[in-house]
Amino acid sequence: MPKGKQGFQPGHKFGNRFDVGEVNNPEGARAHKSHKAKKKIAEELKKIGEELIIEKIQDGNGNDIIVTQTNFEKLMRNIYKFAQRGESWAANFIAERTEGKITQQFGLEPPGEDETKNLLDEQKLAILNHLLKDPDGVTDGTEQDSTKG
Predict the structure, then answer these.
(1) pTM of the model
(2) Domain residues for 94?
(3) Number of domains, the chain
(4) Is residue 126 part of a domain?
(5) Is 70 in contact with 45 (CB distance < 8 Å)?
(6) Could you please report the per-residue DSSP string of 10-43?
(7) Which of 7, 15, 22, 97 has the most CB atoms in a 10 Å sphere around its CB?
(8) pLDDT in single tens digits along all 149 residues of the chain
(9) Is 119 inside any structural domain?
(10) Does residue 74 form part of some domain?
């Protein structure tokens, strides 16, 4: 052997291997610390969201009004303000939570009869031309290739 490198000695055990028939975790899986931390963060965020805040705001006439709301309500009002200013992310956030998310279906099959009703005439023509095209590039059966004899 090269100098400085030593191989395994006869009878060497490879690390902490388990004996045949031995269960490696007899007490079962334990919850990970990260899972507990995430759960704790979610609980804390919910607590903070439910906290009441009292604010003094002015109405359109300059009069002071005292408003009591939760942090969660204030957050939702701010998201509505962003949507009113034209922020698309805020409008999407509101729509997804009030109307539900839009599902997109992807298929590999050609459009069926019902799906072709909504196609534009140009799209229908393009599909027909593609289907009628033969391997020589002739678009319909009446034209002949001049190179063929």
Answers:
(1) 0.43
(2) 42-98
(3) 1
(4) no
(5) no
(6) TT---TTPPPTT--S-TT-PPPPHHHHHHHHHHH
(7) 97
(8) 555 566 667 776 666 666 666 666 666 666 556 677 778 888 999 999 999 999 888 888 889 999 999 999 999 999 999 999 999 999 999 998 888 887 776 666 665 555 556 666 667 677 777 777 754 544 444 545 545 54
(9) no
(10) yes
Query: CB–CB of 71/50 below 8 Å?
Result: yes
Instruction: Report the C-alpha dihedral over residues 84, 87, 93, 98, rounded to 10 degrees.
Output: 30
Distance, in Å, from the CA atom of 38 to the CA atom of 44, rounded to the nearest integer, reads 10
- Contact residues for 93 (Cβ-Cβ < 8 A; gap 6+): 79, 83
The torsion of the CA quartet 80, 82, 84, 88, rounded to 10 degrees, works out to: -110
- Structure tokens of 43? 């609980």
92: in domain: yes
